[in-house]
Amino acid sequence: MKLIQSRDNAYYKQLKRLAESGRERKKRGRTLLDGLHLAQAWEAQRGPLSDLVVAESALSGGEIADWLAGRDCTVIGDALMRELGIVDTPSGLLAVVDTPQPAVAPDPDADAVLLDGVQDPGNLGSLLRSAAAAGVGQVLLSAGCAAAWSPKVLRAGQGAHFVLSIHEDRDLADFMDVYRGTTLATTLERATSLYAAQWAGPLAWVFGAEGRGVSPALIERAGLRIRIPMPGAVESLNVGAAAAVCLFEMVRRRLT
Amino acid sequence: MKLIQSRDNAYYKQLKRLAESGRERKKRGRTLLDGLHLAQAWEAQRGPLSDLVVAESALSGGEIADWLAGRDCTVIGDALMRELGIVDTPSGLLAVVDTPQPAVAPDPDADAVLLDGVQDPGNLGSLLRSAAAAGVGQVLLSAGCAAAWSPKVLRAGQGAHFVLSIHEDRDLADFMDVYRGTTLATTLERATSLYAAQWAGPLAWVFGAEGRGVSPALIERAGLRIRIPMPGAVESLNVGAAAAVCLFEMVRRRLT
Fold it and tell me: Which residues lie below 8 Å from residue B68, measured CB to CB, with a gap of 6+?
C-alpha cells in the first residue's frame, strides 16, 4: 500500500489524464471504474482487479474498507480524489482497468441494439443496462455516440458493460445490410404501433440521438418502422425510456 | 431591448442567483427555462413569456433570432450567458418564469405517478416526460426528490412539466392511504410479474430512488408489488427506464 499526497506524483498525474481525457483513455487502452458496485461487477465477470485506488477517508471504515482488506492498493488524499472529477459524487474507490475489446465480431444472427449518435452519458449507460437486462448480448454504436467506456457511462451502466459485447465506431448501415433477423427503427412517421407490429426471430433495434432521432438512411433500411403510441399530451420520450419500452415489449412477447 | 455586458449589473446578478441556487428560486417563486423548445412549449400551454434573455451571438441569425423578432428581450454577452452555468450546453435563450403551482389538490381517483427520493435531474425529467406521454396527469414527489422545477430537470422534461400537475414535498404514504384506485410499487421481492399482474381502474405507480428503490413503508402500503421480468444477465434497470416499461404496459393494455 502506498500513499500519494502530491499532485506532482507521476502515478497521480497519469490517473488525472485518464480521468479527464477520452483521447488519453483511448491511447492507453485503459479506463477507470468508480465505486464498489462496479468493482464487484467487474470481478464477477472479468476476474481480479489489480490496480486499485482509494481515498484516504474511505479506508477508515465502511464497505470499501472491508472489501479492500488484504488487497494491495494506492491511497490518495481525499482532495486529490475529488480533483480527479470523474463523476459528480466520487465513491472513494477507483479501479484502473484495460478497456475490454469485444471478443467476437458483431453477430448478424443474434439480437442487437444499434445506437445512432446517442451522446448523453447517462442515457447511454441506461440504454446498455436495459439491453443487458432484456437479454440482448451485443450493442453497436455509431461514431457519433459518447465513448461507451468513459467513467460516466460506466457508472450509469452499473455493470451492464461487463456482460455485453460493445462494438464502438461501427457503420450501422453496413450491419443492417447483413443482418439476418428483423431490423426495427423507432420513428414517428409512416410507422406501425409497437403493440400491433408483427415480428419473429432475432431483432436488431435502432435507437437514435436525443433530439434528431434515427438518421433517415437507417430508417429507410429498417425492416419495420415502429412508433410507441402515446395517449398523453406530449409525444416524445427520452431515448433511454423509449428503448426500454421497446426492448421489454420484446421480452413480454417472448415470455407470454 | 437592453444590453448587459457587466457581471455587476443588478439584473444579471439576480439571474445568476436564480441559476445557481435552488433556495433562491424557491424564495422568489421563479425559475429559468433554457432553450427555444421549452419556451415554445411554455407558450403553447401557459401563455406569453415576458421575461426573455438572449446571448448576443444568438441574435445574429438562426431560429432563436427568428422567434425573437418583434419581442422585447434582454441581451447579455456570450461569456455572461456561459457563466450562468445553467445546463452543460446553454442554448443562448433563457426565459424567467413564475414557478407554476398545481391548480388543484392531488386527485385520489385519477392515474398518478409517485416518486420516492428520485434525485438525479436527468432521471426526474425523463420520468415526468414518460408520465405525460403515457397520459398520466399528476405526479407527486417525496421531500427527498430533486426540485422538479430546476433548470436541469426542466431541460430533461422537454415541456412535460407544463402539461402535468406536479405536487412536490408530499407525503406519499398519506396519498396512498386515500387513493381510490390501485397502488403499485416496483420491487424485486414478493412481487408479481408486470406481465401477469391483474389491475383495473385508476393506477398510482410508485417508483423509488436510484440504488435503494422504493421505501419499505411504501412497498408495504402498495396494493400490488410489481417486478419487471429480466431474462438477461443483469437484474436492474435505471429508474427512468423501469418507469417507462411499467407506464407503457398500462398504455398497451388500455389500447388493446
Answer: B52, B54, B59, B93
Do A170 and A243 belong together in one domain?
yes
Task: Name the residue range of residue A213's domain.
Answer: 112-255
Q: Is residue B106 assigned to a domain?
A: no
- The pLDDT tens digits for A100-131 are 999 899 999 999 999 999 999 999 999 999 99
Tell me, what CATH number does B249's domain have? 3.40.1280.10
Q: What is the mean pLDDT of each run of 10 residues along chain A (256 residues)?
A: 90 95 96 96 94 93 92 93 83 95 95 97 97 98 97 95 97 98 94 97 95 93 97 93 98 95
CB contact under 8 A, A125 and B238: yes
DSSP string, B62-105: SHHHHHHTT---EEE-HHHHHHH--SSS--SEEEEEEPP--SS-
pLDDT tens digits, one per residue of B29-69: 999 999 999 999 999 999 999 999 999 999 888 999 999 99
> Does a structural domain hold residue A126?
yes
> All 3 cell numbers of residue B62?
438562426
Q: Are A244 and B249 a contacting pair at CB < 8 A?
A: no
Total count of domains within chain B: 2
User: Which residues in chain A have Cβ-Cβ distances shorter than 8 Å to B253?
Assistant: none
Domain holding B35: CATH number?
3.30.1330.30
* Option in A159, A233, A241 nearest B241 (CB): A241
Do B73 and B6 share a structural domain? yes
What would you measure as the largest C-alpha separation in chain B, in angstroms? 62
Asked if residue B103 belongs to a domain, the reply is: no
Q: Look at residue B189 in the predicted model and tell me its pLDDT.
A: 86
C-alpha cell at A42: 467487474
CA nearest to A108, candidates A36, A187, A182, A196: A182
- For residues B31 and B152, membership in a common domain is answered with no
Q: Does A249 reach chain B within 8 Å, measured CB to CB?
A: yes
Among residues B98, B127, B161, which one ends one of the domains? B98
User: What distance in Å separates residue B174's CA from the closest CA in chain A?
Assistant: 26
Within this chain, do residues A242 and A172 fall inside the same structural domain, yes or no? yes
CA distance A79 to chain B (A): 23
- Using a CB-CB cut-off of 8 Å, the residues of chain A touching B256 are 195
Chain A, nearest residue to B194 by Cα = A252
A186 and A210 together in one domain: yes
CB contact under 8 A, B244 and A245: yes
Burial of B100 (0-12, 13-18, 19+ CB in 10 A): middle
Q: Cβ contacts (< 8 Å) between B254 and chain A: which residues?
A: 231
In this structure, are B40 and B158 located in the same domain? Answer: no
Residue of A nearest to B236 (CA): A133
Q: Would you state the pLDDT for residue B211?
A: 81
Residues A162, A78 share a domain: no
**Position B70 in a domain:** yes
Judging contacts by C-beta atoms under 8 Å, the chain A residues touching residue B132 are 232-234
